[in-house]
Every structure is written in C-alpha cells, then in structure tokens.
Design goal:
heterodimer, A: 11 helices, B: alpha/beta, Rossmann fold, 2 domains, six-stranded mixed beta sheet, three-stranded antiparallel beta sheet, 10 helices, 24% strand, globular, disordered N terminus, ATP-binding (chain B), ABC_transporter-like_CS (chain B), transport (chain B), AAA+_ATPase (chain B)
C-alpha cells in the first residue's frame, strides 16, 4: 500500500467530511446564503437597467460576473481564513504529527474550499437564472468554457489564499488583507463594467485573477454580442487562459515552499504561545 | 549519571535482548539567541520503560520533548529516537511515534469516532505483522472510556473527555514511543486513575515506551519506572522514585506517643533510632510512625539546592551516592 496514495485518499475523504460539516452549522450556512442573497437582491433591482451602449439587462450581465468574482473571492478568503484559524487551534500541528498528515491536510483543504465555493456558486446561480433573463450557456462550447474557467480559476486562487494564509500567524490580522482584496474585487469589473474605469485602474484590475474569472464566466454565460462592450471588444479567451494560467503556475510553485516553511515552524509551544496571546487580547 | 547495579524496578521486557535504546540523548544543547535553554541533557530509555520528566516551569521540558518529536531543531548534541535522528525523521519513523501535546482545540466540528477513524487511516500502510496499525477504532474508543460519547462533536466534550480523546489520537497508530505532555491536566481523580491504568496497559501489554511530563509528583511516582529532574537546562537527577528519595534526603521523620505526649524526631538512621527507642522505653511507645521523605520533599530539596547555585555540588554528591 502506497502511503502517499493513502494520504491523498484520506485527504479527499477529509475534504468531503468538512464540506458536509459546513452544511450543518449555522455560521457556515449564514456565510453561504447571506452574501449570495444580497447579490441576488442587487441583481433584481438592476434587471431593468441596461448595459451602457446596449439594451441588455445590467442585472443579467452582473450574474456571471458575480459568479466569477465570488468564486475567486471565496476560494481566496476561505482558504486564507481556514489556514490561519487551523494553524492557531492546532489542526495543522496535528496533521504534522501524523505520517503524511500534511499532504492529507492540504488535499483536504483544496477539496473542502473548492467544494464550498461550488456550493456557494450553485446557491447564487440557480435562483439567479430565474430572476434575470438572457443568462444561459449556449451549446457545448459554452459549457466547456465554463468548465475550464472554473477549474483554472480555482487553481489560480486556492494557492494564493494558502500563501496569504500562511503569512498571517494570527487570524485577527487577516483583516489587514481583507480590505485590499475587497478593493480588488471592486476594480475588477464585477459589479460595474471595467471599461468605464480610468485606464490605470483597468490595468490593476487586469493584473489579478478576479477580473479574468468574471470575464470568463461572462463569455460562457452571455450572448456573444455582449463581447462588444468588453475591453478590446472581445471575450479574450487566450488572454484569460494566459492570465489565470500564470497565476496558477505561480501559486502551485510558490505555495508549497511557503507552506513547508510555515509547517516547519509549527510546534506545541508556538501553538500554546498564540493561544496565550489570544487570551491576553480578550482580557 | 545512570544508575548501575540497582536490582529493583528495572523492567526487562520479556524476550527483548539488551538492545539499542528507544531514546538516546547525549549532551543535547539548545540556545535561543544568546539564551541557553538546554546546556547538556543526557539520558536514555529502554523499550517499554516509562520515564517522567519533572522540572520547574521554564526548565526546558517542552523544548526537550519538541526536539525529540522532531518539531524543533537542536543547537548541538547527539539524539536518536527509535534509532533515527529526529531532525531527519521520515514519515515511516513518524508512524512509530505518538504525540500528545499540552493543549489542543482542533477539529471541534468533527465527531469523536469519525476523527479517530480518519487520523487512524494514515497509519494503515505502516501496519506490520508484529504491530497492527491503526488500532481498532471501537476498541480504542472503549479503552479511553469514550464509548458513550463516540458520536458527539469534539467541541462539545468536557475538558477531561477532550484530553482522553487527545490520548486516543496519540495512540491510534499503536506507537512504539509515546510522548505525553501533561496528560492529566484537568482530570478528576477517577479519570486520573483510569488514565494511569491505561499507561500501565500500554507499557506492560503493548511494550510502548513512554516519556511524560507532569507537575503532579504523586502521578510521577505512580507511573514512572524512572524519574528525570530537569533544572537549569540539564538533568540533575535520574532514578526511580525510591532511589531518588533514599539518596537525596538523608533524614526520615519518626513520630511516636509516650505517656500521652506526642514526639517528633528527625534522624538519618530511622531503623537504629527506633530500635534504641524500644530498648529504652519498651511498651511505653505507641502510635509509632516513620515517614521517609516523599518524592515531593526530594524534588523540592533538589531543585532548591540547584537554584541556590549549588547545583553542581548536588549533582556530584548525587552521582557519588549512586556508585
């Protein structure tokens, strides 16, 4: 029996168990439903407005954008949060004390966060398509686009979340990076077309994966005519693949290095010291 | 400073030849910045032995254990754990260790049995004909007394139950060597007794070598084949509870009643004193009590002596007494 294979299989099972747990506690259910409910309300009120220069519903344009942006944001932030929290509570150290436990843990995290992101997307999309008109993948090609954008987008964002997560030893400091991430989502043309932003802001948006996930989802779910209102007047599939692929490669190369460094530093006394510090802050 | 030629309390595991020690620590040193935490720790452990590490807070107990667990790099010294340098231990080596740390708060959403089953599954490839890994989960849950709580969420367990789960996780892979850092903190007397039975079971039946730290000297005395006292970054005493008590504190306390009055006398030779007492007063002596120094007395005396700067002298005297 190959120990690596056993650990990967244990990791997949672990991810599955943790996804199931996320469906049975109030906190996680709130996180699933509340933001998506808010987005749906926003889209509902946007349904009569039109995309500038067309007579297509702005609400319908927003649904795929939010789907892409939400996937990026969810994958990044959930990964980051769970890593910092589970480092503090000793889950990571526990994984380190078990043979190949670190491998199983990471596989489990990827499965868990990817699973939770997909559930979140379903909660948004299923009521969304009934709420606004004109959103549907047209033909097998569109489904294929949806699939590769989804997979590549998750592979781009999950390691990035893990890298950020391992940089913060204290979950209470994660807020420092939450604000820039939210700002990034705002500049990525999710809620309002990026073409209306100043050019320098457009470049910032295009440097990160959030914009490309949104664009990729729009290309899969919206009629082809709407490509005309995007930057360059096209869905830019090649550029989407390039940008998301570059982030994915970067993440897959850097994340293991950063994670290994983080794991090496974990020991009983570091966990105890963080607990001590957390308690002091409460008192 | 090992004790040689002591006929008592040296467990020779049946069928095990005098072989390579499970733990072999020589002149272990640890320095953080310019502070020396460990200044030369030396000790060994044989298979099936239960060792207790005692010492004041900040003496370096946790640092020592973390180095042995492979969670921390040492500054200097030679260390082998199950024949392997823990700084380069691989996963196969890791599978033979069990670790129970001081405080865990992890996996609070998991259910007890589910978590043990999951963590146990990593050990499956390391099962051998001699050691079946992992432990059968239902049996393990029963051994640590969590059967009524097997389907409870970990976050809902009481402090003592949580600790028992920690121990269960530590032994789920049937380790050859188990590290326990203050395992009974927060236990009520009954849970403590059950835990002691478990430790005896592990060392007697499963041949598990155990290194544990505790602040409970009574517990140390009950569990340990050998007690190591760590102070000021090195081991200042190494021996069974009796050996430590007999050698360190020379004074025993003799109490008796005579003619309705209570007497107390401290003496280095209690036997001779009592004999003389009876020779002189015969039947007049009642309620006789002889109290040898407890481990607590010994421990306090050793540590106090060490801290008052005469550590080196105490050490030499102690070594001398052992030869």
């Amino acid at each position: 029996m190959n120990p690596t294979l056993v650990a990967v299989r244990a990791g997949v099972a672990r991810g599955g168990i943790e996804v199931r747990q996320s469906l049975t506690n109030v906190q996680d259910l709130w996180n699933y439903f509340f933001p998506n409910f808010a987005f749906l309300v926003v889209m509902f009120f946007m349904r009569d407005a039109t995309v500038p220069g067309t007579n297509f519903s702005l609400g319908a344009r927003t649904l795929p954008s939010v789907l892409g942006g939400g996937l990026a944001f969810g994958a990044l932030v959930t990964m980051m949060m769970t890593l910092t929290v589970e480092r503090e509570d000793g889950t990571l150290l526990r994984a380190k004390a078990v043979p190949n436990g670190m491998l199983g843990y990471l596989v489990g995290k990827v499965v868990q966060v990817a699973g939770m992101s997909l559930i979140g997307s379903a909660i948004l999309v299923i009521p969304g398509v009934f709420l606004v008109d004109g959103v549907a993948p047209a033909g097998p090609e569109a489904w294929l686009t949806l699939l590769w954008v989804l997979v590549l987008g998750l592979v781009a964002c999950l390691p990035l979340g893990a890298i950020f997560g391992s940089l913060f030893a204290n979950p209470r400091n994660v807020g420092v990076i939450m604000l820039p991430i939210m700002g990034l989502v705002a500049t990525s043309g999710i809620f309002y077309p990026i073409t209306n932003f100043p050019v320098w802001l457009q470049w910032i948006g295009q440097a990160f994966p959030v914009y490309w996930l949104g664009l990729g989802m729009r290309s899969a779910l919206l009629p082809d005519e709407l490509a005309a209102v995007e930057l360059g007047g096209s869905w830019r599939h090649l550029e989407t693949f390039g940008a998301l692929g570059a982030w994915a490669v970067l993440g897959v190369v850097v994340a293991p290095i950063v994670l290994r460094r983080m794991a090496r530093r974990e020991s009983g006394s570091t966990v105890a010291a963080r607990k001590e510090k957390a308690l002091q802050r409460i008192n | 400073m090992t004790i040689v030629g002591q006929p008592e309390r040296t467990p020779e595991p049946a069928g095990v030849l005098p072989e390579q020690p499970v733990l072999d620590v020589r002149d272990l040193r640890m320095r953080y910045g310019s502070t020396d935490v460990l200044t030369g720790v030396t000790f060994t452990a044989r298979p099936g032995e239960v060792l207790t590490l005692l010492g004041p807070n900040g003496a370096g107990k946790t640092t020592t254990i973390e180095i042995l667990e492979g969670f921390r790099m040492r500054s200097a010294g030679e260390v082998t754990v199950l024949g392997v340098d823990p700084a380069h231990g691989d996963e196969r080596w890791r599978a033979r260790l069990g670790v129970v740390l001081q405080s865990w708060r992890d996996h609070s959403k998991w259910r007890v049995r589910e978590l043990l089953g999951h963590l146990g599954s990593y050990y499956l490839p390391y099962s051998t004909d001699q050691v079946r890994r992992p432990w059968d989960i239902d049996e393990l849950v029963d051994v640590v007394g969590l059967t009524p709580h097997a389907h409870k969420r970990v976050g809902r367990l009481s402090g003592g139950q949580r600790r028992r789960l920690d121990v269960a996780i530590g032994i789920v892979g049937r380790p050859e060597l188990l590290f326990l850092d203050e395992p009974t903190a927060g236990f009520d007397p009954e849970a403590r007794r059950e835990f002691h039975d478990l430790v005896h079971r592990l060392s007697d039946l499963e041949q598990t070598t155990i290194l544990l730290t505790t602040h409970d000297l009574d517990e140390a005395e009950k569990l340990a084949d050998r007690i190591l006292i760590l102070a000021g970054g090195s081991i200042i005493a190494d021996g069974s509870a009796e050996q430590l008590a007999r050698r360190m504190s020379s004074e025993a306390e003799v109490k008796w009643s005579q003619g309705g009055e209570r007497f107390v006398h401290a003496t280095t030779d209690a036997t001779r004193y009592v004999r003389e007492l009876f020779q002189q007063h015969g039947d007049g002596i009642t309620d006789l009590e002889v109290r040898r120094a407890t481990l607590e007395d010994t421990y306090m005396a050793l540590v106090r002596e060490f801290e008052s700067g005469r550590g080196a002298t105490a050490l030499r005297e102690f070594e001398g007494a052992n030869r």
